[in-house]
Amino acid sequence: MYSDEHIRLAAQSALLGNITRGLRAVSVEIELNTIKWRCVFGSEVAKESQREILSKAAVKVMANFSEEMQLDDQYIVVRFRNTEDEPPNQIEHLKHIVFLRFEQESYPELAL
User: Distance between CA atoms of 47 and 40, rounded to whole angstroms?
Assistant: First the structure.
């Protein structure tokens, strides 16, 4: 059985040098014999252009585990907000957040 610390360290190590501008968050968890890897992007353009980089990071995570483990990698888009009048959208994370971008409402790069 793998510890929570093992999956967190494997994920954080895999992310070194692979954080992209459009990435909002990465979370990870182990469920039975499956490693779940969720990357959240701020736009569809960011997802399409940066998915391959984060997919390679997911493979690095898998290299830290036995061959019996399966990968459930998820690449989703959650915009910061849908309209200027609405509150920021919430991100649904897996058990362990291993990357979370700094965001606040006045952050200029989060403009629609």
Answer: 8
Q: Kindly state the tokens that stand for 19.
A: 């954080």
* pLDDT beyond 90 at 104: no
Output the CATH code of domain 4-110: 3.30.70
Amino acid at 66: S
Helix, strand, coil % in the chain, rounded to nearest 5 = 30, 25, 45
Q: What is the rounded CA–CA span in Å between residue 109 and residue 65? A: 37
Domain chopping of the chain, boundaries: 4-110
What's the whole-model pTM score? 0.88
**Contacts of 106-112 spanning 24+ positions with Cβ under 8 A:** 110/42, 110/80, 110/81, 112/81, 112/83, 112/84
In the predicted structure, residue 110 carries a pLDDT above the cut 70 = no
